[in-house]
Amino acid sequence: MWVRSGMTYRASFVFTVFGNLLMTGLDFVGILLMFTQVDSLGGWSLPEIAMLYGLSVTSFGIADMLLGSMDVLGARMRDGSFDVLLVRPVPVLAQVGADRFALRRLGRVAQGAVVLGWALSSVDVEWTAVKVLLVPVMVLSGAAIFSAVFVAGAAFQIFAQDAAEVQNAFTYGGTTLLQYPPTVFGKDLVRGATFMLPLAFVNWVPAAHILDRPYPIGLPGWASFASPLVAVGCCALAGLAWRTGLRSYRSTGS
């Protein structure tokens, strides 16, 4: 329904997607401006950081397109409309994800993919079959990890009644964090992003293997290939949190 609604005015849809692409691209413009003053950032070159940027934005864009409407959950609980979703013969999570589905968010995915394509063609890497295969694995695993963060944030909103900005701090804030190399951050932050909220497995850890760079906190070599396992674990924990939140939900009665 929302796709048909968004496509009703085709010209408006095209301009909205293009505008979304330009707006998200401003983040990368900021990185380009930085590199007019420096040759490297944290020891990483522009193509290497562009690779991190492209992986982060593309993965997040896929998750945002599928589940980005989760931040309206708090408003639905306050006005009582969340109860309507509970009585429909469709999984509540699917309904919340599809609520106000915006196909225009394809602009973010396209912009991230363009930067990623340029970075992969420009970065100084001796490509092997394993490294080539690791790129799509990173994108899909990263999308799953970000999706799990969206779902976990939505579950938290059920308990807090409205905490959309807390959720956004870890989703939008997380993708911004991953656009820069881990070497520019303190080791405590890198440890937190690796072990507590494992966003580092979206790009930092596997990209270090592709670029033949040591990871700042010293992980075993097999960790570079652990992104799919981390994604499965995050999705399982997010699903558990979601089911727990639904069981504890109490209607407003309105």
From TrEMBL:
UniProt KW Transmembrane keyword: yes
Q: Which domain of life is it from?
A: Bacteria
Transmembrane residue ranges? 12-38, 50-68, 133-156, 189-210, 222-242
Asked whether the UniProt record includes Signal among its keywords, one would answer no
> Which keywords does the record carry?
Membrane, Transmembrane, Transmembrane helix
Q: Which PANTHER family match?
A: INTEGRAL MEMBRANE TRANSPORT PROTEIN, SLR0610 PROTEIN-RELATED
What protein name applies here?
ABC transporter permease
Q: What organism does this protein naturally occur in? A: Streptomyces edwardsiae
